[in-house]
Design goal:
This protein is mostly beta strands and about 270 residues long. Helix content is about 5%, strand content about 40%. It contains 2 helices and 19 strands. The protein has a 17-stranded antiparallel sheet that branches.
Length: about 270
């Protein structure tokens, strides 16, 4: 299978330079950074998030192209805001747009199965929605989330609280900071302070020390949420908390062939 996004097309090798006295090119990309050509663009005609090949939404301004960024990892690191969704221990085997659309399909393969992640923004006037749909095509696959919402170019860390869904729907996570609000629907994620492998790589690239132990949460059924082991992990914005700051939301979910899970991030003026 081949990658059919624009980044897969032949392009000039302008991302490297020759080091004096060396015949080997030296990459201009910082360690751990995603080359710009590896991003795919989504759009609803009002804004345009950028999604990396590894499933991370590293740039998103809401509700318009010229609005402050909600995710800005493109300009810094994971803690500047992102939403990464990927198959654990998997590799991307195909990436394409649905013909004549900005709907992005990314197919992951692991040793136990295959899963497809579909990302898109439906055109809307009253609100802005970012959909992330996961469908298991064969076998059994575990997917993982790393969601870090940072309003106003990472200047504002929102508080989360859990809200009861309407009849027949699941609870959702509501977060606000200043004039911005976001509702995250889908199987619930958990607040955690544990760093990821990406955090360790980012710290090393910046000259820092080693990070923490990384993610190690167990998985659960397709209709349930996963939770981190020990530490300070807790349900994000549990009803008895009255709302909590959540630097990072995480969760692992196991899907079997034919199962599907949807997550939606909805922006609204608070």
């Amino acid at each position: 299978m081949t990658d059919q996004t624009p980044s897969a097309r032949p392009h000039p090798t302008h991302d490297s330079t020759e080091r004096p006295g060396s015949s080997h090119p030296q990459s201009l990309h910082p360690a751990g950074a995603t080359p710009l050509e590896d991003y795919a663009l989504l759009s609803d005609l009002s804004t345009g998030p950028l999604v990396s090949r590894r499933g991370s939404v590293d740039w998103l301004c809401l509700p318009r192209f010229d609005s402050p960024a909600l995710f800005a990892a493109l300009l810094g690191g994971p803690d500047d805001g992102r939403w990464k969704l990927w198959a654990v221990d998997g590799d991307v085997v195909e990436r394409r747009y649905v013909p004549y659309t900005f709907v992005l399909e990314t197919t992951w393969r692991t040793t136990t199965g295959t899963v497809r992640v579909t990302d898109f923004l439906p055109p809307a006037e009253a609100q802005d929605d970012l959909y992330r749909r996961v469908e298991c095509l064969s076998g059994e696959v575990v997917v993982e989330h790393d969601l870090r919402i940072r309003f106003d170019y990472a200047r504002a860390l929102p508080w989360f609280r859990r809200t009861d869904g309407t009849e027949g729907s699941e609870p959702a996570l509501l977060c606000t900071a200043g004039p911005d609000g976001v509702l995250v629907t889908g199987p619930l994620l958990y607040a955690t302070t544990r760093p990821t492998a990406d955090d360790e790589q980012s710290a090393e690239a910046a000259g820092g020390g080693q990070g923490g132990a990384g993610v190690g949460n167990p998985v659960s059924g397709a209709s349930e949420h996963g939770r981190e082991i020990g530490g300070e992990d807790r349900p994000a914005g549990s009803p008895d908390s009255g709302g909590l700051p959540a630097p990072r939301l995480a969760g692992r979910f196991r899907l079997r062939a034919g199962e599907r899970l949807d997550w939606v991030l909805t922006w609204f003026p608070s």
